[in-house]
Design brief:
The complex is a heterotrimer of chains A (378), B (330) and C (616). Chain A has six helices and 29 strands. Chain A has 378 residues and is an alpha+beta fold. Chain A folds into three domains: 121 residues, Roll (DNA Polymerase III, Chain A, domain 2); 97 residues, Roll (DNA Polymerase III, Chain A, domain 2); 115 residues, Proliferating Cell Nuclear Antigen (Box), CATH 3.70.10. The longest helix of chain A has 12 residues. In chain B, helix 11 crosses helix 13 and helix 13 runs antiparallel to helix 15. By secondary structure, chain B is α/β, with parallel strands linked by helices. Chain B folds into two domains: 162 residues, P-loop containing nucleotide triphosphate hydrolases (Rossmann fold, 3-Layer(aba) Sandwich), CATH 3.40.50; 123 residues, Zinc Finger, Delta Prime, domain 3 (Up-down Bundle). With 616 residues, chain C is of the alpha+beta class. Chain C is built from 21 helices and 26 strands. Classes of the chains: A alpha+beta (378), B alpha/beta (330), C alpha+beta (616). The interface between A and C is medium-sized, with 30 and 28 residues.
Chain lengths: 378, 330, 616
């Protein structure tokens, strides 16, 4: 392997893939960046085994020449040293040469480093994108899907499956679901170029998707998604993001959602949020329990009591109210979390009595649903 | 040891059972490899992992050269997870990482291998957290738990794993291994007759301990017959100062027992089986001097002393009493 | 003191038989007991070669009447018990009348005594046989010299351990006497080196200083309490001086040292989570009670007693000790290692104590304490208390302690709810060290705070509050949590479903060994529902009823640990300040729930000393 590369392009791409590299790698090989030189460009790969990031640097990018490849080849170099070295080299171009013993010579202007490399065959094999098994999502939609569900995943290690977001695809509709068992968030999206792909029980770690969301460049139009047996791949221009999937069966969430309701209300999202936020001021971040009571057809009362501190009473006027009188308690913080990702002016809430979970969704859209389990007194 | 045929030289039953299971694709979810050090548990675990992962197996023998085989050995296989005690015990963080790994699908394929060494150092809580996994692992997973003794493993774990007991190495194999490592045969034979644990046998050669101990016992056994009046002095000046703690006294008694067994062997014409190979002359001489009945009594006396050494009898007293019994009526 | 008389046969038989003389230490113990009983104010013990060569005990007590000298050496002669009834009201220590004859029978014994300082007698016995009876100088008191112990019983002699071990036993025994009788001046010498010397000033703390050293004594807090049956008083050592053995706990009942595991447990319980696991405090407790409440004749060595109303005493002790530490700021401060004087025993013989405790000198660092005094903590600053031992002033907190002790039924929660003024000095964050410790300063010096321990403490108290909070709210779970239970556990749960539901935990049977948690109390921390539920069940099972205090503490400690920031976690300055602010308002800020210290302090003075800016 031998090539000469524009240093700034190299540095930028090294930074991309370094995001996947953990300082506490479990496998020795994963402390390194895998570098592969092809005839038409170079790939860099970093991985912490949960997520992997691969960047492609094309030899020619429009009119610019990024890399001049003399001889193809591959090596794995210690990320810690390699990244710093490239960053600090003096000239605008860097030359990498691999000799037989996996020692890689790095040259730029008057400085020369010789780094010991590892066998690229030892690097984990990443699944390949297969034609026909992928579907395409708009980047902004993908980011919205993540934002509107990832907040609801469980942070606890005890039920690992709940730390993930469930993805299911059926008849060109992608359904994303997350729950920590106190609340549940669902977001549906139509996928135009689904390529007849269908799947269920694909559970992607919430952390991976949050990371993906950070890495994806807003200038990207679309992202191609491929689901394999073990991993999910997101492919943008010159960037590949992979995440391992969680193992196990995701709980059946469909039948948790009540099909009937006893009380339906519609309230302005902002007012509701502000009222609950104030009600939580006294609870000191402790149990966040908020009580809601219908006063009449136009007015709701929100209260919160913290014995040592005091009591808050808020009233919220509602746009619409139908059905039975209502008195229910819930975790206010969870409602706020959901209201934050609902972009509509009004929200519709359906209650089925004080003992049952209730549904909240944007009043003008039906692609999103939030479900909350009430708090009861014993 | 890298193949089933090599394993079958020392652990024929285990090699056969495991190889057959791989052949038929009927591996258990979890195995418990139990046995002393040097019996090949770790190598067998690696072998099993390779046979499980290798895509080019021939009659269940791994190819040893493919990516899977190479990485399983180098520790770079992303789906082979190995846990060794961090210090004295397996730590909570290690178990946490393991549990997280349980919750994920494999990196490259659905096949995952977990090898846990010194399983007995896990806390009960940690061990219990593995139960669910051992019972119904997701995907194609294989767990190998390695331990010195199954007795130290929680019964809940035991009942969920297939226990493979690695038999101790026969003395001639230990001898051979020791000689291959460059130790003198006469001492290697002695060490091998004291333990089947290769590592422990090797440790006996530290600072020539086994060599010295052996010489001292030989001197005593010699004196008992040829200079009975000096035997006490030998005990006090040679034996007691060298074999100081209870464990070492036990070893000294073992060495004496082996001696009498050798004399017996000379009497019945099994001179090629003796352990004290450099003492043939003395052994032959004693074979004439001691009746079989007396030899039997002597062996009994040594055995009694061994038992008493396990109780709380002061070593000095113990050896002196033994001496009296050995000299009785001779 | 009653004249020595032979016990009548039946009484003699009632006394548990048994050899009293096992080893030199038992000789010392018996002789010193006699000396104490004789009303001595000074007792000097000199031993040679661990007591095997000679033991001499000299006192200034009542002495033995010369016409009773011979009688003193016949079995069960005693001046202390007259009849059966007396046996149940024993106030003197050596009541059995076995000691002198037993000792005399296994040694060469010389006894010189003068009951009135006018006339003196001397008697010499070998192996129990009287050799001579002569006059001696009339010096008030008694001197017993025991030589060649066990010379005629080689078997005994064989089983003795090294001189060092025997001396250890003797020294231990005298230490206990000194603690039991601070009003008596004890002096123990071995091969002419002084091992212990107390002043007889009646000040227990001074005795404790002599025995355990200046540092340990400085950390001690005085306590006292009483009920109708018991009066207790003593000193409780600082948690940071805790030792790995129970033998640093001393219980003195009516002047008699006894061993008591139940009371040791009570003391330990009183320290709550201040003690690291497996550690015991240094503590000396004097218990005064009516002799009828205790039976000392349980064991020949008289070290164990049987106690009526033991539970009551346990409770009293536990609550009293808890009261002591609930009010204390326990901040270990780094002690500059090479300049402070070792606690010395006395005068020119101090070297022996150094030999016994070489670690004090060689260790690079050791802990010391400071306590904000009443005054300084009120105006918000603290200062290291540097003067040498002072007896604890009887300040206003004493009545409070009494109050806590007098109504032992008050729960610890109530005790903790006393007005909380922050006991943590105001601190300014400087930075973080190794992602693990927060560094801070104020006018008094430099502080290091273990962020994980601090967080744990905050969480612990938070969860504790939660658990005790009257909120009876539970959260339904959208996805029930499944748990597998063994047959016996399952049966237990089935039986106790209502009790658990009463605590907010709703379980349902899901077939086979599987149960599901449908709802749990709101205070159950997210992600730890299962463990907490298990903890709750375990408590219920172990203690038959849901003693919420216990569940609370155990569960809170468990959750606190899991929820706390792990070490090696880098924090922004803002986060650190927030953490410290929150931690300062804890009720027990100075230790984590497992008893490890949270904060360590270097005073400006200590730092300057280390840099040799100040010389003493």
């Amino acid at each position: 392997m031998k090539f000469t590369i524009q240093r700034d392009v190299f540095v930028q791409n090294i930074q991309h893939v370094s995001k996947a590299i953990s300082s506490r790698a479990t496998l020795p090989i994963l402390t390194g960046i895998k570098i592969v030189a092809f005839d038409d460009g170079i790939t860099l790969t970093g991985s912490d085994s949960d997520i992997s990031i691969e960047a492609f640097i094309p030899a020619e990018d429009g009119d610019n020449s990024n890399v001049d490849i003399e001889r193809p080849g591959a090596v794995v170099l210690q990320a810690k040293y390699f990244a710093d070295i490239i960053k600090k080299l003096p000239e605008s171009t860097v030359e990498l040469t691999l000799n037989d013993q996996m020692v890689t010579k790095i040259r730029s202007g008057s400085s020369e480093f010789n780094l010991n490399g590892q066998d690229p065959d030892d690097f984990p094999r990443l699944p390949e994108v297969e034609e026909g098994s992928q579907f395409t999502l708009k980047t902004d939609l993908l980011k919205a899907l993540i934002k509107q569900t990832a907040f609801a995943v469980s942070t606890a290690e005890t039920r690992p499956i709940l730390t993930g977001i469930h993805w299911g695809m059926e008849s060109e509709k992608l359904m994303c679901t997350a729950t920590d068992s106190h609340r549940l968030a669902m977001r549906e999206a139509g996928v135009e170029e689904s390529g007849d792909v269908e799947f269920t029980n694909v559970v992607i770690p919430g952390k991976s998707l949050t990371e993906l969301s950070k890495i994806l460049d807003d200038s990207e139009e679309t992202v191609d998604v491929t689901v394999t047996d073990n991993q999910v791949l997101f492919k943008a221009t010159n960037l590949l993001f992979l995440s391992r999937l969680l193992d196990g069966n995701y709980p059946a969430t469909k039948n948790m959602i009540p099909s009937q309701s006893k009380t339906n209300i519609q309230v302005p999202a902002k007012q509701l949020m502000a009222a609950i936020e104030r009600a939580l001021l006294l609870s000191d971040g402790k149990n966040n329990v908020v009580n809601l009571k219908s006063l009449n057809e136009n007015e709701l009362e929100i209260t919160s009591v913290t014995p040592e501190v005091g009591k808050v009473t808020e009233s919220v006027s509602c746009d619409a109210f139908e059905g039975e009188e209502l008195r229910i308690s819930f975790n206010g913080k969870n409602i706020i979390d959901a209201l934050r990702v609902i972009e509509s002016q009004d929200v519709a809430i359906q209650f089925t009595g004080a003992m049952s979970p209730f549904i909240m969704r944007p009043a003008d859209r039906d692609y999103m649903l939030h479900l909350f389990s009430p708090v009861r007194t014993y | 040891m890298q193949t089933w045929s090599e394993l079958s030289e020392t652990q024929p039953t285990i090699a056969r059972v495991l190889q057959n299971s791989v052949r038929r694709g009927r591996l258990a979810h979890a195995y418990l490899f139990e046995g002393g050090r040097g019996t090949g548990r770790r190598a067998a675990a690696l072998l099993l992992a390779r046979a499980f992962l290798c895509e080019k197996t021939v009659d269940a023998e791994p190819c040893l050269v493919c990516r899977e085989c190479r990485r399983a050995e180098s520790g770079n296989h992303p789906d082979v997870h190995r846990i060794q005690p961090d210090g004295q015990t397996i730590k909570v963080d290690q178990i946490r990482a393991l549990k997280k790994e349980f919750s994920m699908r494999g990196m490259e394929s659905a096949k995952k291998v977990y090898i846990i060494e010194e399983t007995e150092t896990m806390s009960a809580a940690a061990a219990n957290s593995l139960l669910k996994f051992l019972e119904e692992p997701e995907g194609e997973a294989l767990a190998v738990l390695i331990t010195a003794s199954a007795g130290q493993i929680l019964p809940t774990i035991l009942s969920r794993a297939q226990v493979m007991s690695f038999s101790p190495l026969p003395p001639d194999r230990v001898t051979k291994a020791l000689v291959e490592r460059g130790f003198r045969e006469k001492e290697a034979r002695t060490a091998a007759s004291l333990t089947s644990d290769l590592e422990e046998a090797e440790r006996m050669f530290d600072e020539e301990w086994i060599s010295q101990g052996r010489e001292k016992v030989v001197q005593l056994m010699n004196d008992l017959i040829s200079r009975p009046q000096d035997a006490y002095i030998t005990v006090h000046e040679t034996i007691m100062p060298f074999f100081t703690d209870r464990q070492q006294i036990q070893t000294a008694l073992d060495l004496m027992m082996i001696w009498y067994r050798d004399v017996l062997r000379m009497q019945v014409g099994q001179s090629d089986a003796v352990v004290y190979i450099d003492q043939e002359d003395t052994l032959t001489k004693q074979a004439f001097q001691l009746s079989q009945q007396k030899l039997g009594k002597n062996l009994q006396a040594v055995m009694d002393a061994k038992r008493r050494a396990g109780a709380n009898v002061p070593p000095q007293l113990l050896v002196e009493q033994l001496l009296l019994r050995l000299q009785e009526g001779s | 003191m009653n004249p020595i008389k032979k016990l009548d046969a039946s009484l003699s038989n009632k006394i548990a038989a048994g050899e009293v003389v096992e080893r030199p230490a038992s000789v010392v113990k018996e002789l010193v007991e006699n000396a104490v009983d004789a009303g001595s104010t000074k007792i000097r013990i000199a031993v040679a070669e661990g007591g095997l060569q000679s033991i001499s005990v000299l006192d200034n007590g009542a002495g033995i009447r010369l016409d009773e000298l011979e009688a003193a050496f016949s079995r069960h002669a005693t001046s202390k018990i007259q009849s059966d009834r007396d046996l149940f009201r024993i106030r003197t220590l050596g009541f059995r009348g076995e000691a002198l004859p037993s000792i005399a029978s296994v040694s060469r014994l010389t006894l010189m005594t003068s009951p009135d300082g006018a006339e003196g007698g001397k008697i010499v016995l070998h192996g129990g046989e009287i050799q001579s009876r002569t006059q001696s100088p009339p010096k008030q008191g008694t001197e017993v010299i025991v030589e060649d112990l066990f010379y005629n019983t080689p078997a005994r002699l064989k089983y003795l351990k090294t001189i060092h071990t025997e001396l250890g036993h003797i020294s231990d025994s005298i230490n206990r006497f000194a603690m039991a009788h601070p009003e008596i001046a004890f002096e123990l010498t071995h091969d002419e080196r002084t091992l212990l010397k107390t002043s007889g000033s009646s000040k227990l703390l001074q005795v404790l200083q002599q025995i355990y050293g200046l540092q340990a004594a400085r950390g001690m807090r005085r306590f006292e309490a009483e009920t109708d049956d018991f009066t207790i008083e003593g000193y409780a050592g600082s948690p940071v001086d805790a030792r790995a053995s129970r033998s640093y706990l001393t219980f003195v009942f009516n002047g008699r040292y006894v061993r008591s595991i139940p009371l040791a447990k009570a003391v330990q319980a009183g320290y709550d989570q201040l003690l690291p696991i497996g550690k015991y405090p240094i503590c000396c407790v004097h218990v005064t009670l009516h002799p009828l409440l205790m039976d000392v004749n349980v064991h020949p060595s008289k070290l164990e007693i049987r106690l009526s109303k033991e539970k009551e005493l346990q409770h009293l002790l536990e609550e009293t000790i808890r009261g002591v530490w609930n009010k204390e700021a326990v901040i270990p401060s780094m002690q500059e290692p090479f300049s402070r004087e070792e606690p010395t025993v006395s005068g020119d013989n101090a070297s022996s104590s150094r030999e016994k405790a070489p670690s004090g000198k060689s260790e690079a660092t050791s802990f010391d304490f400071f306590y904000p005094s009443e005054e300084t903590s009120r105006n918000g600053t603290t200062e290291a208390v540097r003067e040498t031992i002072r007896s604890q002033p009887e300040t206003q907190d004493i009545p409070e302690r009494r109050a806590a002790a007098a109504s032992p039924d008050r729960s610890s929660a109530e005790v903790q709810e006393e007005p909380a003024v922050s006991r943590v000095p105001e601190l300014h964050v400087i930075g973080q060290f190794h992602g693990t410790y927060i560094l801070a300063q104020n006018d008094d010096g430099f502080f290091m705070i273990d962020q994980h321990a601090a967080q744990e403490r905050i969480n612990f108290e938070y969860f504790l509050d939660k658990l005790s909070s009257p909120s009876r709210e539970m959260q339904d779970l959208l996805v029930p949590i499944t748990m597998e239970l063994s047959g016996s556990d399952a049966a237990f749960i089935d039986e106790n479903k209502e009790v658990l539901a009463e605590a907010g935990l709703v379980l349902e049977h899901f077939g086979g060994p599987v149960y599901r948690i449908r709802s749990c109390p709101v205070w159950f921390p997210e992600g730890m529902e299962k463990e907490t539920a298990e903890e709750l069940m375990m408590e219920l099972k172990q203690h038959q009823d849901l003693r919420l205090e216990r569940v609370r503490e155990d569960a809170a400690a468990m959750m606190a640990c899991k929820a706390a920031v792990k070490a090696n976690h880098h924090l922004q300055n803002r986060d650190m300040e927030g953490l410290i602010r929150e931690w300062s308002s804890c009720r027990q800020p100075f230790t984590c729930p497992h008893g490890r210290p949270v904060m360590i302090h270097y005073s400006v003075y200590e730092i300057e000393k280390m840099f040799k800016r100040v010389m003493n």
